[in-house]
Design a protein that fits this description.
The complex is a heterodimer of chains A (596) and B (162).
Chain A: E1 4-9, H1 12-16, H2 19-32, E2 39-44, E3 56-59, E4 63-65, H3 73-83, E5 96-97, E6 100-101, H4 108-111, H5 129-134, H6 139-147, H7 150-160, H8 172-178, E7 189-194, H9 203-210, H10 212-226, E8 230-235, H11 240-255, E9 260-263, E10 268-276, H12 286-293, E11 317-321, H13 322-334, H14 336-340, E12 350-357, E13 363-368, H15 373-380, E14 390-395, E15 401-404, H16 414-419, E16 428-433, H17 438-452, H18 458-475, H19 481-497, H20 501-505, H21 508-516, H22 518-526, E17 541-543, H23 553-557, E18 563-564, E19 572-573, H24 583-587, E20 593-595
Chain B: H1 13-26, H2 33-44, H3 49-59, H4 63-72, E1 84-89, H5 92-96, H6 99-110, E2 123-128, E3 140-142, E4 145-147, H7 155-160
Parallel strand pairs in B: 1-2
Antiparallel strand pairs in B: 1-3, 3-4
Helix pairs in contact in B: 1-2, 1-3, 2-3, 3-4
Chain lengths: 596, 162
């Protein structure tokens, strides 16, 4: 028995800011103080509050240390672990009130969250199967194999109302039902989509890093339900920590007889393999993903036939996303009703969002469906930093849209998001403030889809490129009002004629910004002005002679030699030489330079 | 555009040995082409046409098919990379926090465009899609080192460490 546990976040965010070294420092210091029989250091999955990483939590107190540095470790060990006095100076400031330490659940960031998919992230050591088992791990698989028929399993998932968390929102139980015919007579596959390609989304990675066994267990349950004996997890090669932990988990599950032949002595066989992606966004589309697992260019195939009929290697296949799978074991163990009691009428359960962009608490949050955008951004997210105003939130990545401030009270669920021109997507939620130009953002996403379009069908390959050219025209100040009509016409054409989801949703960022921020487009076209000050071609820099003290700093900074003037006299910018890099504004101490 | 490299191919016998024995062992595995190219890139660092030909012959597939796969996925590179690979994240979270400017500044400082390698083979520069460290945005990586919360001013100092 250990009297204290030091949980060090080992997610990608914290690892990037050096949490590995901090865990080592803790181990060394604890050994040096002779506490290694009493205190244990554990590297866990993501706690969610990435903005404050590296994060260390000490149990049993639950003290939450944020932005921990190596040099703080000795003090924490000596004061907290040896003498029992938490170092309040280093604790997350929201957990300290009048010198008293509050529970983490009482902080604004965690209060409204409900962790189902992330239940074990930050709680267990993901590289130790016994810790997963201690938290009811593999109990759902045991229950399914010994007490339920495959049809009962499918009914349970149907009753829970669980919908695909990868973006589309298709009912998971229905997908399983479609693939359940001819059990035992044909080869079938169960696949997991961990090719999280949306820029700014990292929910699936965090589940794989923090709780890989929940995905393995759920895939085995799915395999039992449809009658498959082989599974594949298709995961991005860009996620090395996730790949490593998943492999460790698979090996341990095999060793414990939870994967392989005759699982739980029931005659049920199932094994799992990892397939590495190689960086192609389109491979998140189900048919493209299967083509890629088969070792080919990841191009989508026309549907029908649907994968439930003819999928991987031509055999019936189901494909679910990581977060969808992570929800399965609790549904089986605690019942479909309990899951269905959370959320809205048509969207049940919770959703994990990767909160990023211009927001104070960047990180991973899990909230019940139906939570409003305002609650997520203002309460959990802590609002917009630097006193700026909220302008829009982007959901659904390159397939989604921008939600304006006027719709901030919309309860978030699948259907509401589609109704306002965006979509759930896999759960990236990027917050933008007044410094973000919406035309530029539309262009950013379109550049992404142009780059990632696989080239198989013409509407997507050529259409998105032409659409991007029209946007470029506008940001360069050469757009006309007719271009707006042309953009809308072309966007509709791409949406209705593309082969797969990538093309069918590619125009969404353009259409949604055009719907809610039309004035901004018109401002670019008619007044050749970028209100947010982003589009370079439309900017010009000016020095206010009444504020300029002639310190010459800007002239020395300018890489183009565009600023002239003598000491202690107001300077001026030669607009013909100016390259609009903005270096002068950053350097000026008197706020004399403006752009517009 | 990542097409053929002007750098002459200089693979060693050992590298070839390593690749052909892997191909020998895995050639009957379903969907072997992608893992084979990933292995080949691990051995050689990139996929020049000579290496693609070895993979094609080893798996008994047309070179056209292997070339098709090599050029489809962004992870595969047909040009050699620098000793230090710089990747700037241009995912949405980093982009709205100014990683586009960081990328531009690095291109200027290294005097190369994205996807290229400096003449001395020291640095290569690429843009990448979300590495998932959005809490640290804007982020870049140099080989395995991660640099977050960049402002642009520290780039010179960071590069000088290599």
């Amino acid at each position: 028995m250990y009297r204290s546990h030091v949980m060090v976040c080992g997610g990608t965010g914290c690892t990037s800011s050096g949490s590995d070294k901090i865990a080592e420092a803790f181990e060394n210091q604890i050994r040096a103080d002779g506490l290694d029989q009493e205190v244990r250091v554990i590297r866990t999955g993501c706690f969610g509050l990435c903005a404050l990483g590296p994060i260390v939590v000490i149990y049993p107190e639950g003290s939450f240390y944020s932005r921990v540095k190596e040099e703080d470790v000795a003090e924490i060990v000596n004061e907290h672990l040896l003498k029992g006095r938490p170092v309040t100076r280093l604790l997350y400031d929201e957990t300290v009130e009048n010198g008293q330490v509050k529970s983490l659940d009482d902080t604004a960031f965690y209060r409204k969250q409900k962790r189902v998919a992330l239940r074990n992230c930050g709680v267990i050591n993901p590289e130790n199967i016994e810790e997963y088992i201690a938290f009811d791990g593999y109990a759902a698989l045991g229950k399914v194999l010994t007490e339920m028929t495959p049809d009962e399993v499918i009914q349970c998932i149907l009753d829970s109302g669980l919908r695909g968390r990868g973006g589309g929102g298709f009912p998971t139980g229905l997908k399983w039902k479609f693939a359940s015919g001819n059990r035992g007579q044909v080869k079938k596959y169960v696949c997991c989509n961990a090719d999280e390609g949306d820029p700014g989304a990292f929910m699936d990675r965090s589940v794989l890093e923090g709780d890989p066994h929940s995905v393995i267990e759920a895939m085995a349950i799915a395999a039992y339900a449809i009658g498959a004996d082989q599974g594949y997890v298709y995961v991005r090669a860009e996620y090395p920590i996730a790949v490593h932990r998943l492999q460790v988990a698979i090996d341990q599950a095999r060793e414990y007889g939870l994967l392989g032949e005759n699982i739980f002595d029931t005659g049920f066989n199932f094994d799992l393999e990892i397939k590495l992606g190689a960086g192609a966004f389109v491979c998140g589309e189900e048919t493209a993903l299967m083509t890629s697992i088969e070792g080919n260019r990841g191009e989508p195939r026309p549907r029908p036939p649907f994968p439930a009929v003819k999928g991987l290697f031509g055999k019936p296949t189901i494909l679910n996303n990581v977060e969808t799978y992570a929800n399965i074991p609790p549904i089986i163990l605690k019942g479909a009703d309990r899951f269905a009691s959370m959320g809205t009428e048509k969207s049940k359960g919770t959703k994990v969002f990767a909160l990023g962009g211009k927001i104070k608490n960047t990180g991973l949050v899990e909230v019940p469906m139906g939570t409003t955008l305002r609650e997520i951004i203002e309460e959990i997210g802590g609002g917009i930093p630097n006193g700026k105003k909220f302008k829009a939130a982007q959901t659904g990545g390159p397939s989604g849209g921008c939600i304006p401030a006027s719709l901030i009270d919309t309860p978030i669920d699948y259907d509401n998001l589609v109704a306002i021109g965006s979509m759930m997507g896999s759960g990236g939620l990027i917050v933008m403030d007044e410094d973000t130009c919406m035309v530029d953002i539309a262009k950013f996403f379109l550049e992404f889809t142009v780059d990632e379009s696989c080239g198989k069908c013409t509407p997507c390959r050529v259409g998105t490129k032409r659409l991007l050219e029209l946007l470029n025209k506008i940001t360069e100040g050469k757009g006309t009002m007719e271009d707006l009509a042309r953009i809308e016409e072309l966007a509709d054409f791409i949406k209705s004629n593309s082969l797969c989801g990538l093309g069918q949703t590619a125009p969404n960022p353009v259409l949604s910004t055009l719907r809610y921020f039309r004035e901004e487009y018109i401002e670019h076209i008619q007044h050749k002005r970028c209100p947010a000050g982003v589009c370079k071609a439309l900017l010009s820099y000016k020095i206010d002679p009444t504020k300029c003290r002639g310190c010459t700093l800007c002239a020395r900074t300018c890489p183009a030699g565009a600023i002239s003037g003598s000491v202690k006299n107001p300077h001026s910018i030669d607009v013909l030489k100016c390259v609009k890099c903005g270096a002068c504004i950053e350097k000026c101490k008197f706020g004399a330079i403006s752009k517009g | 555009m990542r097409r053929f490299s002007s750098v002459p191919f200089n693979g060693t016998k050992e590298q070839e040995q390593q690749l052909t024995s892997w191909l020998e062992q895995h050639k009957d595995m379903p969907g072997a082409a992608m893992p084979a190219l990933q292995k080949a890139q691990e051995i050689y660092g990139y996929l020049p046409i000579e290496v693609q030909r070895m993979v094609a012959e080893g798996l008994g597939k047309p070179l056209a098919e292997i070339y098709g796969i090599s050029t489809f996925y962004s992870q595969f590179s047909l040009c050699p990379k620098g000793a230090y690979k710089i990747s700037v994240c241009l995912g949405t979270a980093c982009y709205v926090k100014g990683s586009g400017k960081i990328y531009e500044k690095l291109q200027e400082m290294l005097n190369i465009t994205g996807g290229e390698c400096t003449a001395d083979g020291k640095f290569s520069l690429d843009a990448c899609r979300c590495i998932g460290a959005c809490g640290l945005a804007p982020v870049m990586t140099i080989n395995d080192d991660v640099y977050g919360r960049l402002t642009g001013d520290e780039l010179e100092e960071i590069l000088s460490r290599y």
